Amino acid sequence: MNTKLLSPAFLLFLLTSLCFLSGCKEVEEVTVPPRPDIAETLISGEQLREADLEIAFSAAMPLQGNEYLRDLMIVDDRLYAVSSHNYLMSFDLQKSVPVYAWKLAPDISKMCGLKSYDDTLYSIISSDLVIMDMREGTKRMSKQFGFGTVCPPARNDYFYYIVGTDQRIHALRASDLVQIFEGSANDDSEITCVNASDNSVIFVTAAGNVVAMLPDKPVQLWGFRAEGEINSPVIRDNGQVIFSSRDAKVYMVDERRGKLVWEYLTAALLMDAPVATRRYVYQHVDGKGLLAIDRQTGELAWQVPNGIALLSENGRKVYVMASDNTLVVMDSKKMQKIAEVNLPGITHWVSNISGERIYLADKYGRIVCIKPIEY
Asked: Which of the pair, 341 or 39, is modelled with greater confidence?
């Protein structure tokens, strides 16, 4: 027997495949030991140490043939990696180990978004709303639509909100997925993003409208108009709605009344949505890099000229992904770069807005978590 086939990654794949083929409803918790060799092939340990960083854990997805890593995302306290064949692995951010692996859907199915509510995950897969158990990775219920969908769904305590290609928001009762009502923009423009809470539902349109409506009926509460298409998704946090537009501006709007709090003009076409932390709103701008806008004042605090995405924050240190595949360490107080780490081969990363750890991966499904060294 070829003992190389008994690697942890292969055993994990075998376990998941058998469960999927046999139709079992539960996937046992799995433990895959850290793979230092994976990390070392992606990132220089010496450069990490010079930047006061170290490997927290590494793992590899058991990809087959022409399969590749498609998405890497953080949802609540889990890191999720999804392959091009809809194979999903879940990692516990605290324990730094894989929790379960699951075949979400047939290889050719299209997945749109992955969100959480209470103890469930939900997504649009092909033309179905699929609701899964967050802890076990098993399907709870699903609903097929007679229309196409254009963006990830949203959820509050009472409804799921599905945006259709018919330019309507369809509200499905959370308990049984029966449609209760539907709504649209006043000008019938295409809806590109939806965000829900128990107090209101906020959606944006391709025409530049940001609209809040009641959660249980299609009645508008307020509307805000930008001069260009809104980049999705919008951020809804701490009573504020934050977004950017193709009109070259980043906006903060009061969530309750829809009144402008501040706007920042970048003087460049914006194609990416911003990322917000407690201190800053980060916006990638072509030709200017990553801008850190003070969340309170709406003024530019500092920028990384070749930056493209926030990776994480650790006190005054901010970790940024740069366009030349380097990790840039910024001192936000001194507004200067203090270190950098080469990341050859890295193709995927996530913005961790709630912790200091950095999550990176390559297209072959090799995943690395980096953390600050504790002295």
From this structure: 341
